[in-house]
Amino acid sequence: MDDIMLLAGFAQLKPMGFDFELVYSYHGHSFKTTGNWLNQVDKVLFLTELGYHQTKSNHQEFTPEVFIIGNGVDSKKYYPINAGDKKLAKINKGFLADDIVITWLSNDRPKKGLQLFLKLIPRLVQKYPNLKVQVIGNSQPIPHFGSRVSAIGRVPNDDLPIYLQLSDLYCFTSLWEEGFGLTLTEAAKCGNLVIASENGGIPEVVNGQSFSFLVSSPNVLSQWEIQIENAMKTLNSYTPDPIFLASYHSLEDWENKFLYALES
Description:
It is a single chain. With 264 residues, the protein is α/β, with parallel strands linked by helices. Helices cover 36% and strands 16% of the residues. It has helices at 4-11, 49-57, 83-92, 114-127, 160-166, 182-189, 202-206, 221-235, 242-247, 251-263, and strands at 23-25, 43-46, 65-68, 100-105, 131-136, 149-153, 169-172, 193-197, 212-215.
């Protein structure tokens, strides 16, 4: 379960004589409870070690057994394509074969930072003549920036991989304590260099990989410009490793960790 109120309700049944194992699979970064019912919870499954330690520090007493299970992405859907196929994919989606494509993908709630990325766009297209931008997942119209910016909007999940596979850079402007960053992981597995907020569990998810560029002050626009520039400088020397990326936060690994936690 991932409902703190429901968890509290089940926990309060145990002192009444109901005998069951209570497992809380938490999909955010960290949580805080009040009252003493948490000691009735047998196990908590966290996305990251960082989230566990933050939650532990939120409580004077934290008694559940803990498992760090992460999250998983299907490597059969999200994987890097070769250079020729990438050029063809760009052409099929209306780009030029040699365009550099930067992608923003999320819903457009303020905590996901689209409003910040929209301020970045004019600076980026002015600075990098061969850069094109695609914005995916927004439900509201965005300003018109000209032909170098594609506002794609919502895309069915099955159609997402090709947009990430043709992309070169992925900008993850999360402005809250992100639990994991699933789209960030999908983009990385498709061969993108990722520029991401140093928020929540994100540093642990990217784990210092060469494809990652973290922004320690994500509310400061100039910090994004610096890390995007660093990523642009790295682009020509970065070759995605399909074998490593297939194992990077794979769905199979997550399933194994989840089952192990339940069966232990």
